[in-house]
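Hi everyone, sorry if this is the wrong subforum. Our group has a chain we'd like a structural model of before ordering constructs, and none of us has done structure prediction before. Sequence below.
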Amino acid sequence: MGEPGRLQVTGYRFRVNVINLRVTLLLKENSNSMKSFIIFCVIAISATCYAGDSGYHVIKRLQLGGEGGWDYLTVDEAARRLYISRSTHVMVIDLETDKVVGDIPDTPGVHGIAVAPEFNRGYTSNGKSDSATIFDLKTLNVLGTVKTGVNPDAIIYDPASKKVFTFNGKSQDTTVIDAVSGKVVKTIPLGGKPEYSATDGKGKVYVNIEDTNEVVEIDSLNIRLSQRFSLDPCVEPTGMGLDAEHNRVFSGCHNKIMTILDTTAHKVIARTPIGEKVDGNGFDAATGLAFSANGDGTLTVVRESSPGKFEVVDNVATQRGSRTMAIDLKTHHIYLPGAQFEQPTAPVPAGAKQRPVMVKGSFEVLVVGK
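Answer:
Right subforum, don't worry. Here is the predicted structure as tokens:
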């Protein structure tokens, strides 16, 4: 990292001493407007340029704007595209140019996107219409819709079975769709509210069950639920990463831990601390790192330090509200959506929940890399 107080131009990194910039003296010597500007600059520097022990930091921000909130996002590595759910439509980004190249409309309450490159098909889970939209990966034209269970959330394509699975929150089941015909072949009860999922590509699909604190394994070739695993001491697992080679599931839990489940040993073998309000997790097999996107504005980076032992190597500063993520396994970049939000104009009554209002045009995607 170099000496404290010295800027490293090549890596675009700063030591914490540089970020301080003698802020106290500057604030004393300047007007209120200048103070605000200084604070803004310090926050921007610390969030964008500082790299911790892992070397990961925010390397750029894609200013995309557009309407709608967001949930999951998906990388199509072969086509070099990023799909982002935006409440009623899906935004499509070219990963080589960082530009918007298309949009998939009429996906009410869209949560997730799955891609099946071998069939040139994409699928969205539309939570408000209890349906999945099928679209052409090249043209982005809508090819049709298929009815699912109630409130489909996560969605995944499993290449081993050539099936698409939507995980339906309110009906607590999964709708299994034939990726070629677009027809429903089966509905499997899950015994709880499903959250995010992952496939090992060999015939096993895993999904977090949020209200029972479990992971369920689905035999995708025989289209049946095959096993249940307790995630104790995890509470409300949401995001998921999967190390398919070593049969390990990384689940982000709302009690601020990541559990590492060994599906061969049938138990949680380790846990690490993470930030608050996690909603997205991932695993990069090439680097051996697991990630947790936390709504408190951090990205927790975890590695296996010795056989069966895991440790946090970094908590990368991102942006408050950036709680979902996707990994580009070609570049090893992590993409996290975010935005600015308006401050409440009136006090919020005790016990009441108020959804923050996004500043118009402020939607962006943070790109984390080295």
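For your construct planning: The CA atoms of residues 72 and 360 lie 20 Å apart. The chain is about 10% helix and 45% strand.
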